[in-house]
Write a structure and sequence with these properties.
Elements lengths: L5 H14 L2 E12 L23 H6 L4 E2 L5 H16 L10 H5 L3 E4 L4 H20 L34 E4 L2 E6 L9 E2 L2 E2 L12 E2 L8 H9 L3 E13 L7 E9 L43 H11 L8 E12 L1 E18 L15 E2 L5 E2 L19 E17 L4 E5 L3 E10 L7
Amino acid sequence: MKFIPTALALALVSGSTFANESWFEIELILFERHSEETAQVPHRQPRDFIKHTAIDLVTAQLSPSYVACPVLSQRQRFDLAKAQQATLTQPAPQPEVMTDLEQLSQPVICQAPDESILSQAYTIRAQRLTEQATLNQSNMPTPSNTLPQDLSTNGESLFDAGAFVAYPSLFTIDEQAYTAATPQAAAPINSVPITLVSDELATERDAPHLLPLDKLQMVELRKKMRWQKSLTPILHTGWRQPVYARHLAQRYHLFGGSNYATRFNADGSEYIPVSEPMLAPPNLDIDEPMLIPPQPSLPSVSLEDIVAELSAEVTTPRSPLWQLDGSLKIYLNRFLFIESDFDLRKPGTVSVVPEHPTLDGADFDPLAITPAGSISLVKQVEPVELPAQMDQASLIEVPWLNSSQLTQHRRVRSKEIHYFDHPNFGMVIQIRRFKLESDEE
């Protein structure tokens, strides 16, 4: 009996597992209906579908990102820049014949860190140090917070710890070349295109990836929907993924349409930005002695403190509220199964009990600030028993983001077009088996 080495056995098991993976192409069209009427009560609070465990191909397509670049200190950046300057002054070397391995080692494209706050902190620290030196009229020793410098006297440029050194665009560390891409802006995405496709097929076939336009097979169906007055396509996309058993399958986060985060809060109420309140000046009595206010302490020159001050002023972007948001899970248990869970959000109104100073004999503030940072005139949105001094006419209509839910679990067949219906929206989906190309190696 022959014994197989452990490493070889693991390689055979992993190779067979990869070869036995069932890959499928999923193509779907999510659309809104306009002519249907339903007695279904809309949901008042939008649901949150953003989960770290779900695969999000939509955001990856709209905001592509690279691998994060290595962390470089200010001294490392200075040394890299000086070495690159020395290389430029030297004569160009003679071209050499490169081996196949050297030709394959291409520079890694990475995402440079966003250091706008850090560079601003260096400028503020230099200004504060200058102001403190001006205030100090006496000839005192150099304070401990002055910045050290590299005092080498080789006639070369000296390293100044008080000057900010930007992240290099091209550099080499540990015999690996890097090309740093410009950091992307953190601006929110306001809308998603109806047709969401990739420019080309991904080179890594072992990861889920979007399909290009020429691989979509329901283009004509989407065009017919756009000609219908009662239908409006919101999202048409397709991707390739492996399909596993139910306990191993992952959900895919899908969203489209407009982003309502600039108009509504996460609870569905209307979003009204609140400006900072203006404080009235104190009413000073001239007969009372004026107290001398304490002298303010000098601002900190610590780089960490300045970065913390600037970071506190940065407002975090609001979480998106997409017109159509949800998730899709496809698994294989002898047959194909689809678990769909979507919300269609539409601006509307809701009848609410207004805040009133005499309601229930309590004293409320009619302008109650909600945790989301907006003004709310709403006390509660669920049906309640009104007090005796109020009737149905006392209710007010306020803007609200209503939601319709489509949650279905269905067994399907591959290559067939399946329709998931709701009076307000629907989904057309097709699952096609795809044979993953195996590498010759």
